[in-house]
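U., I forgot to send this yesterday:
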Amino acid sequence: MKINNKVGYIKAVTKGFDYESQREVLREAGCVVIYRDIVSSNKTRDGFKELLNNVSSGDTVVVHSLDRLGASMTQLLDTLDLFRRKEITLVSIMESIDSEKKFTLTDWVKLMKKNVEKMNLERTEPARMGAVSRGRQGGRPEKITKQQEKSIKKLYFEKNMTIRKICEKFNISRPTVYKYLK
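Result:
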């Protein structure tokens, strides 16, 4: 008689806080065997491949959150379909999902939407942080310098120049002038 296993899976970028917190959650959920991947991309997920080779019908795979199962919606849906075909139960702690329980289509759509947003953020965050560390700032550049802002305030508040003249002098619009006068 086969004993149904409860195994965990961790995917983290480093073996730091994120890894440790996932491991703790999976242990609390009753996972004795935990497969793991410490990766910055989804290129090599040897731990996940090993998990797929070792689980079988009736087993339960526990993850911290659904986004650990794939970096894209396609990967996530493929994994969910594979688990369904192999009759493997999936438990996701953060989303309070147990695939043995009934979910409405609306529940799944909401869940997938939330996971797409989370995956996109996870994919773009390293690039954004890299740009910040190189001194690059996102967003629209300022129209005027700090020195020009001081000059605008001085010219306006000392009644030396009208808004129209300030606009012409600095080649900016009226709303821009008012923005800096606030």
